[in-house]
Amino acid sequence: MQSEARSPRTTGAIVLVGLMALSLFINYIDRGNLATGATQIRADLNLSATAYGALAAAFYFAYAFCQLPAGALSDRIGGKLVLGLGALLWSLSTLLTGFVEGFMGLFVLRLMLGMGESVAFTTTSKIIATNVPRTQMGLANGVIGFGYLVGPAVGTLLGGFMMAQWGWRATFFIFGAISLLWLIPWSRVRINEAKPVDALSEQPVTMRQILGKRALWGASLGHFAGNWNWYFILGYLPMYLEMQRGFSKEDMAAVVSSAYLVNALAALFAGWAIDKAIARGWSPSLTLKGPLALAHLAGLVCMLAMPAMPIYWCIALLFVYEIALGLSCPAYFIIPQIMAGPSAAARWVGVQNMMGNMPGIIGVFFAGVLIDAGGGSYSTAFLLAGLVNILGLIGWLGILPKVEPVDWKAA
After folding, report:
1. Distance (Å) of CA 310 to CA 193, 300, 319, 410
2. CA pair distance 149, 321, nearest whole angstrom
């Protein structure tokens, strides 16, 4: 990734993207700790699957509905400050989770965590659209994707072993304290917050213009369907393997972290490959929509088949799903960065990510209800996750038009 296309006063693109990827790596470790410690937390606090689902949904409720103000703040006061404040908030909420004594305290801290983490993708999209040339957006988003997808891998592996040795409270405290250290290098970077790179138009773009674009709603529906599957796996797979398949916490951590690592490597490869394909003349629409459609087809098959298969086939299908998902991840944010441009990327992503994270409120909570209603069986929750992929195919292939920069002057 080149860093020449910048002002002498700004930090190079390589450093910026690396630090943003690190922030999302930390972000996903912190949000995933609840799932890693689910069996211990439920036993310690005497929580049902429905109560656990409510805790997971609390995070996504705050996360989703703070997307719009996060995008507006990023456009108004800059991505650097907003991302730094968000990181401070989510780190403190993780640290304080180690001290909670009941459901309500944990519920409040999950809301606080969601508020802090809501700034991540709006700010990074704003900074990438403004500081990274379009020819390198694929790789930049691939590196970002690697960061947030490898976070659950490391978090599940380390968190699983740490919780097995020291318990869940100490693990939350340690991860929260370490997360605060990221603020030190971030406070020293200098970012171009005003001058866009490769901008089609520098005229102000209104929220009404953004909301009027069909592409926004196609991307939002696709994002919704993709996240339904991803958040279901992120929130329930560790508990499923332990409670339904008889895995120890150490064995669960090894399998799940390996799957997440494969996912992250696929995203990194996809970011590089997308840049290469577009540079060779491939259509951005085909290059970006193709992996998204493949991920939904894989999600449909794998979610329907996993609970019915012997354990070795179940694990194999998990890896197939994670690879397909990883290959699609950079496209989720390259599309709005290309189409919205620097002047509107943060607010576009705010809307898209808000809609895309509704499954965290609806799906994660409803999965817990379905598991309790089925006497502890996960089959119905897997079935619903599989069928939601049909909506993703409609969004990305049926509603989203050609991927190209929007001419906001004519919009």
Report:
1. 52, 18, 15, 56
2. 13
What is the domain partition of the chain in residue ranges? 13-193+207-399
Rounded to whole angstroms, what are the CA distances from 181 to 23, 158, 175, 194?
Answer: 10, 18, 10, 28
Asked whether the CA dihedral 142, 224, 315, 247 is positive or negative, the reply is positive
Which tens digit of pLDDT belongs to each residue from 98-117?
998 889 999 999 999 999 99
Question: Burial, 104: exposed, middle or buried (Cβ in 10 Å; 0-12, 13-18, 19+)?
Answer: exposed
- Cα distance between residue 352 and residue 64, in whole Å: 10
DSSP letter for 12, please.
P
Q: Using an 8 Å Cβ cutoff, are 156 and 32 in contact? A: yes
| Among 220, 206, 230, 240, CA closest to 377 | 240
Give the whole-angstrom CA distance, residue 32 versus residue 156.
Answer: 7
Domain range 13-193+207-399, CATH architecture = Up-down Bundle (1.20)
| C-beta of residue 269 within 8 angstroms of C-beta of residue 328 | no
C-alpha span between 201 and 224 (Å, rounded): 29
Tens-place pLDDT, residues 43-102: 999 988 888 888 888 888 898 889 889 888 887 888 889 999 999 999 999 999 999 888
